[in-house]
Amino acid sequence: MRVGLYPGTFDPITLGHIDIIRRASLLVDKLVIGVAINRDKGPLYTLEERVAMIEAECAKLSHETGTEIVAHPFENLLIDCAHDVGAQIIVRGLRAVTDFEYEYQMVGMNRALDDSVETVFLMADLQHQAIASKLVKEIARLGGDVSKFVTPMVNESLKERFG
């Protein structure tokens, strides 16, 4: 069974994330969405809320693609998380060249730790390249419309949060 790991903070999950999840699910038999705890980022949503959003948004995708998609919280090294879930592939989404520079370093470090785990990069679809959770939260906090960047469920959650 080919297992992929797509890690991130997902605070909140965006249409860009969902695009990568959809496309990655076509490459593997099981896709684990690694939800980073990352206390340093000071997330808007709790870990439990982020996991619940991912599970709700991915249930339909899992059914459509026939790929098992599960959320898995983690706070250890990414390569250790890959071992924990039995992933042979780490999936990373790229939006711009600046993403690639950071990701290139990460791949090098992960390969030095375990060269049996491959990293696959998926370019964000053109319509999703500008979407970043950080910017979505900022727009929502300032009363802007984020409905083009997130699902209706996440949009409602952001409205409730920033009312």
Give the topology, please.
Blueprint: E1 3-8, H1 15-25, E2 30-36, H2 47-65, E3 68-74, H3 78-85, E4 89-94, H4 97-113, E5 118-123, H5 133-141, H6 152-162
Parallel strand pairs: 1-2, 1-4, 2-3, 4-5
Helix count?
A: 6
Order of helices and strands: EHEHEHEHEHH
The total of beta strands comes to 5
Q: Round the mean pLDDT to the nearest integer and report it.
A: 94
Shape: globular
- Report strand order across the widest sheet: 3-2-1-4-5
Weakly predicted, low-confidence segments: none
Radius of gyration: 15 Å
Structural class: alpha/beta
% residues in beta strands: 15-25%
Largest beta-sheet characterization: 5 strands, parallel
Q: What helical percentage do the residues reach?
A: 40-55%
Tell me the span between the first and last alpha carbons: 45 Å
Provide a descriptive summary of the structure in words.
This protein is α/β, with parallel strands linked by helices and 163 residues long. The chain has six helices and five strands; from the N terminus they run βαβαβαβαβαα. Helix 1 packs across helix 2. The termini are far apart. 34% of the residues are buried. The model has no long low-confidence stretch (mean pLDDT 94).
